[in-house]
């Protein structure tokens, strides 16, 4: 069974092998003694002993190639196998030998470089570990490699960064003057004085916008009767807008020489000098405490349900009792309202009656020059209204 080929062995081309064989044959012929006896030739060459053959194989270089059989014997005319002769051949005489020599040199150079690297590494380790040599050769010190951050350390650094960002944000927003109040704008004030409201809020100047609350604004504005509430709006970086929500006056009550404006709850908003300045109907009730008066509650319910156009024509409201409410218009027309029930239906019926009668009055006055004027509207029964 043939011996398996070494996968790392180099395979030479056929023409190179032929050249090597010819060179080996020529060298062996030159080394053969010229004085060989005729008897030796006639009897044939003797094969060398086994010990000599082994000795020859020991001294033969590893790059020697097998020789070809010798030429045929002249006397016998037979070919005999050629005897292997010791072959002393230098690496320069064979391409294969030169290749092996080059490989050996490269291997020796690699081994030398590896040994040098190991020595240099050992020297650096000695310098690094020996405290007595610390600082002698700073350029030879080996800087220790930083270990990669673990997952927990990364999370810790991330959490710390987030805490710092939040702390910086809180400091800038809540305590820094970068977002402080510098301008205060008051809106929606008609019964109240805007300048006075702004003056009351002047203490908020310089306070960070994020620390201003509606409760604080309401506290500074005070308990004004006309104030229902406040609404605050922040406009960075320095403006504070305060919208005042006022109560709506629906009637006026005469108190001495002045008239007090009141809302539907009987809350006094402010006082004016005349009924014309009030701009709302004048209410006549016996009770002075309007918030506790039943008659005023009935009147307020009637006034709230009146359309804006009809409410503008009412100049006075009387309530002799809870079932007897009377409206007096600006043109001195009397409206008998009755109770506070079906207020919306009564308001619609009264509006239609006023439009119809005024249209008829205008037509009759144009035709005859003088028409009959209606002075009383009775809508206490809205389905059966009466005019007189």
TrEMBL record:
* Region spans: Disordered: 1-138
Please report a single Pfam family linked to this protein: FtsQ_DivIB_C
Question: Which GO BP terms apply?
Answer: cell division
What domain of life? Bacteria
Q: Point to the regions of Basic and acidic residues compositional bias.
A: 75-90, 99-138
Q: Which InterPro entries match?
A: Cell_div_FtsQ/DivIB_C, FtsQ_DivIB, POTRA, POTRA_FtsQ_type
- Residues crossing the lipid bilayer are 155-180
Its annotated compartments are: Membrane
Main subcellular localisation: membrane
Q: Which residues form the POTRA domain?
A: 179-247
Cellular compartments per GO CC: plasma membrane
Keyword field: Cell cycle, Cell division, Cell membrane, Membrane, Transmembrane, Transmembrane helix
Supply the PANTHER family for this chain.
Answer: CELL DIVISION PROTEIN DIVIB (PTHR37820), CELL DIVISION PROTEIN FTSQ (PTHR37820:SF1)
The name under which this protein is listed is POTRA domain protein, FtsQ-type
Q: What taxonomic ancestry is recorded?
A: Bacteria, Bacillati, Actinomycetota, Actinomycetes, Micrococcales
């Amino acid at each position: 069974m043939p011996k398996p080929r070494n996968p790392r062995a180099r395979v030479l081309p056929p023409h190179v092998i032929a050249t090597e064989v010819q060179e080996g044959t020529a060298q062996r012929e030159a080394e053969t003694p010229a004085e060989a006896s005729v008897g030796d030739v006639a009897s044939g060459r003797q094969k060398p002993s086994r010990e000599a053959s082994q000795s020859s194989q020991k001294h033969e270089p590893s790059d020697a190639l097998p020789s070809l059989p010798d030429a045929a014997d002249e006397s016998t005319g037979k070919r005999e196998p050629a005897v292997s002769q010791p072959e002393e051949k230098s690496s320069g005489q064979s391409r294969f030998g030169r290749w092996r020599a080059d490989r050996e040199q490269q291997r020796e150079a690699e081994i030398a470089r590896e040994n040098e690297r190991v020595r240099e590494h050992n020297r650096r380790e000695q310098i690094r570990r020996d405290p007595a040599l610390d600082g002698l050769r700073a350029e030879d010190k080996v800087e220790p490699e930083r270990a990669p951050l673990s997952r927990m350390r990364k999370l810790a650094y991330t959490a710390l960064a987030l805490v710092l960002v939040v702390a910086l944000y809180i400091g800038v927003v809540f305590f820094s003057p970068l977002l402080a109040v510098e301008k205060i704008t008051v809106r929606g004030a008609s019964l109240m004085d805007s300048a006075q409201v702004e003056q009351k809020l002047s203490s908020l100047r310089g306070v960070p916008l994020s620390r201003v609350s509606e409760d604080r604004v309401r506290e500074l504005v005070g308990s004004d009767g006309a104030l229902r509430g406040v609404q605050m709006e922040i406009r960075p970086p320095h403006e504070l807008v305060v919208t005042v929500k006022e109560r709506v006056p629906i009637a006026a009550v005469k108190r001495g020489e002045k008239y007090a404006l009141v809302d539907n709850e009987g809350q006094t908003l402010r006082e004016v000098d005349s009924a014309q300045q009030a701009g709302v109907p004048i209410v006549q009730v016996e009770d002075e405490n309007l918030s506790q008066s039943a008659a005023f509650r009935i009147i307020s319910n009637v006034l709230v349900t009146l359309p804006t156009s009809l409410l503008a024509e009412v100049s006075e409201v009387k309530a002799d009792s809870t079932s007897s409410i009377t409206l007096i218009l600006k043109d001195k027309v009397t409206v008998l309202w009755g109770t506070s029930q079906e207020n919306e239906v009564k308001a619609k019926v009264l509006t239609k009656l006023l439009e119809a009668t005024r249209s008829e009055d205008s037509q009759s006055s144009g035709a005859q020059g003088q028409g009959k004027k209606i002075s009383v509207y009775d809508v206490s029964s809205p389905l059966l209204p009466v005019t007189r």
